[in-house]
Amino acid sequence: MLSELERTAIRAAAERPGDRRAAAAEALAMLQRERGWVSDESLAEAASVLGMPREELETVATAFELVFRRQVGRHVIMACDSVSCWIKGSESILELIKERLGIGFGETSADGEFTLLPAGCLGLCEQAPAMSLDGVPYGRLDAKTLDEIFARIGEDKHGDSAH
Amino acid sequence: MATPLTERLKADGTAVSISEYEAAGGYRGLEKARSMSGREVMDLVTASGLRGRGGAGFPTGQKWSFVPAKDDGGPRYFVVNADEKEPGTMKDRILLEGDPHQIVEGIAIASAAIGAEHAFVYIRGEYLKSAAALERAIAEATERGYVGRPKEGHGPEIEIHLSLGRYLCGEETGLLNALEGKRPNPRNKPPFPQVSGLWGRPTVVNNVETVANLPHILREGPEWFKSLSPASDAGTKLYGVSGWVANPGVWELPMGATVREILEGKAGGMADGRVLRGFLPGGASTDFLGPDKLDLRMDFDSVGKAGSRLGTGTMVVLDDKTCPVGMLLSLERFFARESCGWCTPCREGLPWIVRILEALEEGRGEEGDLERLEDLSRKLAPGRTFCALAPGAVEPLQSALKLFREDFEAHLRRKGCPWK
Description:
The complex is a heterodimer. Chain A is elongated and about 50 Å long. In chain A, 50% of the residues lie in helices and 12% in strands. Chain A has two domains: 4-61, Arc Repressor Mutant, subunit A (Orthogonal Bundle), CATH 1.10.10; 75-162, 3-Layer(aba) Sandwich (Glutaredoxin), CATH 3.40.30.10. Chain A is of the alpha+beta class. By secondary structure, chain B is of the alpha/beta class. Chain B folds into three domains: 18-227, NADH-ubiquinone oxidoreductase 51kDa subunit (Rossmann fold); 236-319, Ubiquitin-like (UB roll), CATH 3.10.20; 324-413, NADH-ubiquinone oxidoreductase 51kDa subunit, iron-sulphur binding domain (de novo design (two linked rop proteins)), CATH 1.20.1440. Chain B has 17 helices and eight strands. In chain B, helix 2 packs parallel to helix 6, helix 2 packs across helix 9 and helix 5 crosses helix 7 (128-143). Classes of the chains: A alpha+beta, B alpha/beta. The interface between A and B is large, with 40 and 56 residues.
């Protein structure tokens, strides 16, 4: 169920000047931000707050790659597979990530920690190969930098459990 | 050599603050624009010869001039296209992160010219650092009274919209649909956005780099702007290089700098042991040019005459240790994924191209595949599809089939990729 805060945010967006419908994208962005993904249930509720058919909001949700319609892991990796990164060896970087996490594109690791998704160019072409992890960009990837990135996540996790 | 767009960038990567920007002459262009009529600002920008830096190269002042002159009392909108998602392109990010005030000032100037009280910046969802820098710049400029109070003549109100992610959000009518909360499918033209854009109102959409040029043109004048370039196109240009070069990056050079000046002078030439085989001059959707084009001037007209497009001016370099067919497969997979599916040639044609390229790479290529690719690139050419996505997708394909013919044939003959 959507929280009262989420409902209020969607209503506020719908009441701003312009077309009421423009709030659809904002509602989806807010749910994505708050929940990490947009479930069928929250999409249906958001549609009813916006006063639009569920199917109509669905057509917007499925058009965009940063609206996740399936539950994702605690961390989301978006690995660039576009041309500048491909030239600089993104395929071997992907192999390293897949080996480490045991998952391919569109999959979530068994422990629910990681989801791996392809990114159509992250705009880091001069730092290729590149990826983003939970929205933070990383460039000039190789086996060593990947080790460092994953080690840092491991430490954060350790830090979390210590609290 | 003048570098008005990048000369204030700081080595530590933090954004130029409003005081630093003002100290360097910032917001004086806006002051000048506000002492002129909208029509005069438009004429001045037209006289400067500024052409759109998003890829199409349409003259900016002329683009603005299609906004109806008569004020019907309803809203008009100015929109900045910061949805930089053309593979191989990373130039606007440098400006957004490093010197956002020139973009804010540019927005205020353009809005004054066309009479817009509201402006939107549509920015990639992944460009969080850019969005944060711009948000801060807008807050600073609002506090100083440069923007944010349209009713008192200090407009416009500027709103940042983070994209939820799709290549077509960079197509100006797809962008407008996305801003309206719809799928980012492109719209039919005409009517053009200047007449019927956002919510059916007159709207101008300009690229980040285009907008960043405006403060300097207003402050220094159109003759100065023209004097920056040795070519027929005026001003400077952000050029980029990615691929196996010694020093990939982005640099501001006079518009019409040669490929050699960019590739050898700035990017330091090819990486050790690699030989240049070709390059896409301006992002993924431009035709390949060969190593014989090192002395080509990188301006709109010269690159057009050479059989390609300046596009975004960010080159993607192909070297001899990289398979051209594999590179194309990466390019076409991107375009196939990003097709909105609205028109059949694009929706069906791009995956077909991907399947043929995959077959060639995996040794399953068949007699007639290269002819099928040629045929498909003709069937997805301009005029055959609803928007420019598919025609852009086949530019690298049709040029590679000519330039790297022997490599395609080798994939067939040797039943697989010679580079693997």
